[in-house]
């Protein structure tokens, strides 16, 4: 049976969106109790500049986004044959592979604990898409991700404007480019109902903290890696190749 865009969209709103598609809205302190002083509190002074709770929150958010969107990209690659959907999958795998490498490097330099699993809410996003088939699967997956990507833009802008840590600033730049790239390829599928997306971004319901917080990694567990597939390493996207840890040119003398 052919599922129209409007029918698939309506079914999605009445079901999956009850879960709240604010994919990146969870507390900053993974494994650390929240402090009453707020997110502008400096938690460490580093050679790259002061690190605030908001900075740490941002790194964790970017990492957690990849932990559910990367598997969804793999699922799309396996299930979809259309050119537009395969482009979405490729850009998800490459974009989040690059961002993940940046998060892991930044977390090592700044002493930030990263999750190895997405939050229960984010796991449900993947399960919701996985439970559908055909055109409904594609519409559901695309809509979930479009809402998530649209919702993170204000966070990226605020961090980019306020952080005094150069590593976090560079990650914000790369994240902004990657999110814009992903939104572009998602919209090219023609499966997005912009009114529904706008509503979910601007009026998301609230969920308990335990649903929106990624679990801390098990003690001693290796950091999970999201690799870029070998055949996609040369894929050109809006997102630039990160330069974390690479030597920077010296300023001119005098």
TrEMBL record:
InterPro entries: DUF4142 (IPR025419). Residues 54-184 form the DUF4142 domain. Residues 205-254 are annotated as: Disordered. Residues 238-247 have a biased composition (Polar residues). This is DUF4142 domain-containing protein. It comes from Streptomyces coeruleofuscus.
